Amino acid sequence: MTQPQRTVILLAAGEGKRMRSAVPKMLHEVLGRSLMGHVLAAAEALDPAETMVVVGHGAEQVSAHLADIAPTARTVVQEKQLGTGHATRVALDALPDVDGTVVVLYGDTPLLQASTLAELCAAHEAGGHAATVLTASVDDPTGLGRILRDGDGGFAAIVEQKDATAGQLAITEINSGMYAFDASRLRVALKGLTTDNSQGEEYLTQALTLMLDAGHSVGTHTAADFADTLGCNDREQLAWLRGLMQKRVNSALMRSGVTMDDPATTWVDVTAEVAADVTIRPNVQLKGRTVIAAGSEIGPDSTLTDTIVGEGASVVRAHTLGASVGAKASVGPFAYLRPDAELAERAKVGTFVEVKNSRVGEGSKVPHLSYVGDATIGVEANIGAGTIVANYDGMAKHRTRIGDAVFVGSDSVLIAPVSIADGSYVAAGSAVDKDVPSGSLGVARGRQRNIEGWVARSRPGTKTAKAAERAAGEHEE
Ligand code: UD1
Ligand code: CA
Q1: In terms of domains, do 191 and 333 share one?
Q2: CATH label of the domain that carries residue 223
Q3: Atom of ligand 1 nearest to the CA of 13
Q4: Residue 319 above 80 pLDDT?
Q5: By alpha-carbon position, which residue is closest to atom 37 of ligand 1?
Q6: Which residue's CA is the nearest one to ligand 1's atom 39?
Q7: How far is the CA of 230 from the centre of ligand 2 (A)?
Q8: What angle do CA 318, 324, 326 make, to 5 degrees?
Q9: Of 163, 229, 157, 155, which is closest to residue 201 (Cα–Cα)?
């Protein structure tokens, strides 16, 4: 049997009032994706012929976000939120040629997994149903539609909390609000929806009853993990869902060979990759497209965003963004790597060092208290404590070149554009604004002179003057 065409409809027109946010609910972030982004990623695995998103509240923001994360998804506007049934009809009317399986989802269920959707569709298509409801067993069904079953245990109806009797409220099998439908049967059923319920809305759930009444079969599929069906209505639920996702991500990583000292304070985006035999210390966030290679040690207290870390590297108490760290390189403690900071193999960026748009070559070291911006450092160079690359003249940024095995003395300012050639030295405390040729020592600081007897003359009676007197006496003895 060839698999029928599949189409995804995502309902995302609701306001999400309880979030109390200027940002549409679906756009709130959980471990690397928006709520909606997670649902779309799961739906992507169905290889849908078409994905139609119903937008309403915050339509502009939602559409702009979709253009970023799912450019092939189409949107249709539901001007007034007249119910889930109405929203589905608006979408299906915009898809006149669709047949096969239509999967209806919400935009706020970030824990929905691709495997659950695949199982729902498989159950639906194998059963030849007009509709198949994704259900879940929950401890607290408050607020959700309950699944009513007939004497044989088959699906009978869904009753909303607001329309339910006391007996029905005790049912703990709930409607997730996600379904697989036969497209043509759905089209017919949606025409028959009424609004004679306590909310005066067109309920999508009524379509299932209409299908049964017309003699078609309606199946159910129970999610293996009820978390897959959890929606997000307020910020407390947002935090709860984030915690559940954190547990899923972390257990998958630990099972794949990652050591986590403290999973509770380890937050890895679903878009990040961590190889086996990486050790993650407490309080670490790995965000965006971060990739950590085998044998590296990350943390404690580090946030890496869109950062590539090579094998056997170490990143301690660091904040990094758009950087790359070579194999066996070391970063921190207390380092800041900004976009296009590129550390080659065995490079070291140490304590209180900031690097931006610069390459630090193989085995080169910037160990203490430095700023390196718009610079290229060759191999095996040593940049002394307190060195500042002054890349900005107040008008424009300029580049600095530091060659192989260069030794820059402590507390130097390298004023760009400037070049320190291979195999040269810069004397400590220099303010270098002329190129230093290969093999030479660049000295760019005032000469020292000592004014003898100055303390006794100008600071008589001070503790410094007394110390000087004592030193003179000792000298005489
Ligand atoms: C719905 C189900 C309920 C189920 C619950 C699961 C109905 C009648 N009830 O209830 O059985 O247990 O979901 O969460 O379907 N939306 C639109 N346009 C609308 C109305 C809703 O796009 O006109 C979207 C919302 O943005 C939201 C989703 O549909 O993402 C669900 O809407 P909501 O009002 O939350 O449905 P519930 O009443 O919670
Ligand atoms: Ca809801």
Answers
A1: no
A2: 3.90.550.10
A3: 22
A4: yes
A5: 144
A6: 144
A7: 9
A8: 100
A9: 163
Atom 13 of ligand 1 has which residue's CA nearest to it? 177
| Burial class of residue 442 in the structure, from the number of CB atoms within 10 Å of its CB (0-12 exposed, 13-18 middle, 19+ buried) | buried
Both 268 and 219 in one domain: the answer is: no
pLDDT band at 476 (very low <50, low <70, confident <90, very high): low
pLDDT at residue 145 greater than cutoff 80: yes
Residues 262 and 222 in one domain: no
Residue 330 domain flag: yes
Is residue 324 domain-resident? yes
199 and 297 belong to one structural domain: no
Instruction: Determine which residue's CA is closest to atom 22 belonging to ligand 1.
Output: 13
Task: Tell whether the model's pLDDT for residue 175 goes beyond 60.
Answer: yes
Report whether 391 contacts 373 (CB < 8 A): yes
pLDDT (tens digit, 9 = 90+) per residue, 236-260? 999 999 999 999 999 999 999 999 9
User: Which ligand 1 atom sits closest to the C-alpha of 206?
Assistant: 8
Report the alpha-carbon distance of residue 438 to residue 404 in Å, rounded. Answer: 10
The SS3 assignment for 418 reads: strand
**The domain spanning residue 279 has which CATH number?**
2.160.10.10
- Choose, from 57, 129, 319, 368, the residue flagged as catalytic: 368
Verify that 212 and 280 share a domain, yes or no. no
Is position 166 within any domain? yes
| Predicted TM-score of the model (pTM) | 0.95
**What is the number of domains present in the chain?**
2
Active site residue 398: no
CA–CA separation, 86 and 179 (whole Å): 15
Q: Are residues 78 and 161 in the same domain?
A: yes
Binding-site residues, ligand 1, Cβ < 6 A = 11-14, 54, 56, 78, 81-84, 86-87, 106-108, 144-145, 158, 160, 174-177, 203-205, 231
Residues 6+ apart with CB under 8 A from 45: 114, 117, 118
Amino acid 477: pLDDT: 58
Range of the domain at 96: 6-229
Q: What is the mean pLDDT of residues 358-370?
A: 98
Question: In this structure, are 271 and 318 located in the same domain?
Answer: yes
Ligand 1 atom nearest 12 alpha carbon: 26
What pLDDT is stored for residue 380 in this prediction? 98
What percent of the chain is modeled with pLDDT above 70? 99
For the stretch 52-67, pLDDT in tens is 999 999 999 999 999 9
Q: Give the number of other Cβ atoms within 10 Å of residue 242's Cβ.
A: 18
Which ligand is the nearest neighbour of the Cα of 232? 2
Name the average pLDDT for the chain.
97
Q: Looking at the structure, tell me whether residues 271 and 186 fall in a common domain.
A: no
